[in-house]
Amino acid sequence: MVKKINDKSYQGGCHCKAVRFQVRIDSDSAIQCNCSICRKKGFIHYIVSREYFILLQGQEFLTTYTFNTLTAKHTFCKICGIHSFYQPRSHPEDISVNLNCLDEDILDHFSLKLFDGQNWETHINEITK
Question: Residue 74: beta bridge partners?
Fold first, then answer.
C-alpha cells in the first residue's frame, strides 16, 4: 500500500556528500525505467520542474555523461560516482531526481510506474510528470 506523501521539501545527495540538493515533492508517482543506463544505476525517477529543485552544494564536483541523442545530461559526482539527479531526455526542461538518493527513505510513499525504456521511442508518450 502506498502511503500518501505531503507537499514537502526533502534533501539528498551523493554518497560522499560532496553534492547536496533539495527537492519539493508534491506527488506520489515515480518512474522505474528498464533502459540500460537506468537499470544499471538503480535510478528511480521523480521528475520535477527546475523551480522545485535547488542544488545546495557541489556544482564543482559534478560531471556529465551523454550518449545517443545527447539530450539527456547524466550528471554524477566525480568523487563517488553517484547519479543523484540529471536532465532527462523525456523532459529536458526538467530535473529527474533519483529517489534512492534522498536522505529519508520514502520509497514506500510512491506508486512506481514501470516504463519500457528499452523501447523508448515506442513508449515515451506514456510518461507524464
Answer: 65
Given CATH 2.60.40.1170, say whether it is the number of domain 8-116: no
- Look at the pTM and tell me if it is higher than 0.85: yes
What is the C-alpha to C-alpha distance for residues 106 and 11, in angstroms, rounded to an integer?
A: 12
Dist CA 85 CA 115 (whole Å): 18
Question: Do β-strands 111-115 and 29-33 pair in parallel, antiparallel, or remain unpaired?
Answer: parallel
Is 11:102 a contact under the CB 8 Å cutoff? yes
- Indicate the pairing of strand 53-57 with strand 74-77: unpaired
* All structural domains of the chain with their residue ranges: 8-116
Q: What is the pLDDT along the chain (129 residues), one digit of tens a residue?
A: 444 556 799 999 999 999 999 999 999 999 998 988 889 999 999 999 999 999 999 999 999 999 988 888 999 999 999 999 999 998 999 999 999 999 999 999 999 998 878 887 787 787 765
